[in-house]
Amino acid sequence: MKTLKAVLILLVLAVSVAAMPTSVQDTLSDFGILGTWAPDCTIPPGSDTNQYAQYTSSSPSEATLRYYYGPNSKYSDRIYNIYFAMRIDADHIRTDARVHNSDEESIETITLKQGNGIRVMSTIRMDGTVYTKDGIMLLSGKPSPWLYSCK
User: Fold this and answer.
1) Is residue 8 in a domain?
2) Bigger pLDDT: 47 or 106?
3) Which of 3, 24, 116, 126 is 20 to 30 A from 100 via CA?
4) Whole-angstrom Cα distance, residue 45 to residue 12?
5) Does any domain span residue 114?
6) CB 37 within 8 A of CB 52
7) 126-147: per-residue pLDDT in tens?
8) What is the model's pLDDT at position 3?
9) What CATH number is associated with residue 127?
10) Percentage of the chain exceeding pLDDT 90
């Protein structure tokens, strides 16, 4: 009886581990975040309030997040290389990324996904600087925007 119980426990563990995404690409795909997101997908990016976020992955170990603000924005595009992704629960994902072409600035981001929308809930630089906490962008005091899938 003890042997049967041990075999069943090992089987459950093996199935659980096999079902878990094992790469950045798999984790992002499983979460459903790959693709293009924007506050309003019916208009092109071109203002400080309608930035597009595009998640792409060309290899299992890394993905790219590009924020595109458009030609009329005071902000320039930001590109992040995502090197770590982990589901926290059904609605949240953690990603760790470096600013493209920079080994200096790494950030940890927690993103909420509900229905057809995503929203950054937390952004912390690896040096401890907090940019977004509980969905509030600390520099402006405003909530982080909801972005919707542009499928």
Assistant:
1) no
2) 106
3) 116
4) 47
5) yes
6) yes
7) 899 999 999 999 999 999 999 9
8) 53
9) 2.40.128
10) 65
In a domain, 83, yes or no: yes
C-alpha distances out from residue 66 to 12, 78, 133, Å: 39, 6, 21
Radius of gyration of the chain (CA): 18
3-class secondary structure for the chain? CHHHHHHHHHHHHHHHHHHCCCCHHHHHHHHCCCEEEECCCCCCCCCCCCCEEEEEEEECCEEEEEEECCCCCCCCCEEEEEEEEEECCCCEEEEEEEECCCCCCEEEEEEEEECCEEEEEEEEECCCCEEEECCEECCCCEECCCEEECC
Contact 26, 60 (CB under 8 A): yes
Give tens-digit pLDDT for 53-102: 999 998 899 999 999 988 877 788 889 999 999 999 999 999 999 987 66
Q: Give the separation between CA 145 and CA 110, rounded to whole angstroms.
A: 14
Q: Which range of residues forms the domain containing residue 76?
A: 21-149
* Total domains present in the chain: 1
Residue, of 97 and 47, whose pLDDT is higher: 97
